[in-house]
Amino acid sequence: MTKTLSGKNMLNNFVKEHAYRLSQISFRGSNLTIHPLRNIRDFFYVGNITIGTPPQEFQVIFDTGSSELWVPSIFCNSSTCSKHDRFRHLESSTFRLSRRTFSITYGSGRIEALVVHDTVRIGDLVSTDQPFGLSMTESGFEGIPFDGVLGLNYPNISFSGAIPIFDKLKNQGAISEPVFAFYLSKDKREGSVVMFGGVDHRYYKGELKWVPLIQAVDWSVHVDRITMNREVIACSEGCAALVDTGSSNIQGPGRLIDNIQRIIGATPRGSKYYVSCSAVNILPSIIFTINGVNYPVPPRAYILKDSRGHCYTTFKEKRVRRSTESWVLGEVFLRLYFSVFDRGNDRIGLARAV
């Protein structure tokens, strides 16, 4: 989920020298945790976590676009909170309160939360005394099929100042290598996974291509150019793209997104742009060239069907405007490419998903 970052200057570009051979990490390793995710209409991928003692279960988005973990509080009385599981802190023997509060504005809504501490479990991974947010108010999340968000971005962009759960697990030695990876399935509810501590090679074909981060502060990479029909249609002088598992679309500057909609003949209706479903067979791929490697996104990937069987495009204007051109590569891109997020070497690995 791309969130509004105000006053957070990105700095300190560095690359660690102690590169390990990620290709040798296998799913057979005892410290690899593979955690199932459910695909909800190709729009959200949610997984279960538990919080507290005894454990209370929540459905969260595992989000590389933010750093906070939060779930609703019993004190949140908004209509959004009332439709979701809320954390009952009085029922947990390991709960600890703090006095800090924070707020986050996402692309789809806003929360205000209190920082608290408790035991959090992701499958067999356990983080004790983990700081997280209990939302006191929520707006804009009406109708969403998840309770909260588990942020997997760098700690630099944390709004609460709390240590993110991946960093805490890493510091506790709970994961063998400081990496996590995503396989996002298409159409099927089951089959998607997030894995921690290593890589299961059954989920991709060929070799992982490594892309260094622009700076070791978030999961943004440098894109060389964006082309359609062998013509550069965006990012002509290079640009940044955030690889965001919490975003369902491909997002970019409004004028460039409008141009893509024109190229593919999409017409606006409501909040979406629609095309004839038969166009899937004739429209061009959009190609993102990253670190010298082409990553095509074909029309079967960037066009989806709504509940009435009408076909719409998944290109969207990026709400957060920056002075330089920037994009968001969300689930539309990540369904095609298995992604490895390597905190040890500040890089992302991409390979075609099976």
UniProtKB/TrEMBL annotation:
Keywords: Aspartyl protease, Disulfide bond, Hydrolase, Protease. It is found in: Secreted, Extracellular space. The active site is at 63, 244. Disulfide bonds join 76-81, 235-239. Residues 45-351 form the Peptidase A1 domain. GO terms for molecular function: aspartic-type endopeptidase activity. GO terms for biological process: proteolysis. SUPFAM superfamilies: Acid proteases. Gene3D superfamilies: Acid Proteases. GO terms for cellular component: extracellular region. Belongs to the peptidase A1 family. This is Pregnancy-associated glycoprotein 1-like. It comes from Bos indicus x Bos taurus. The gene is LOC113886344.
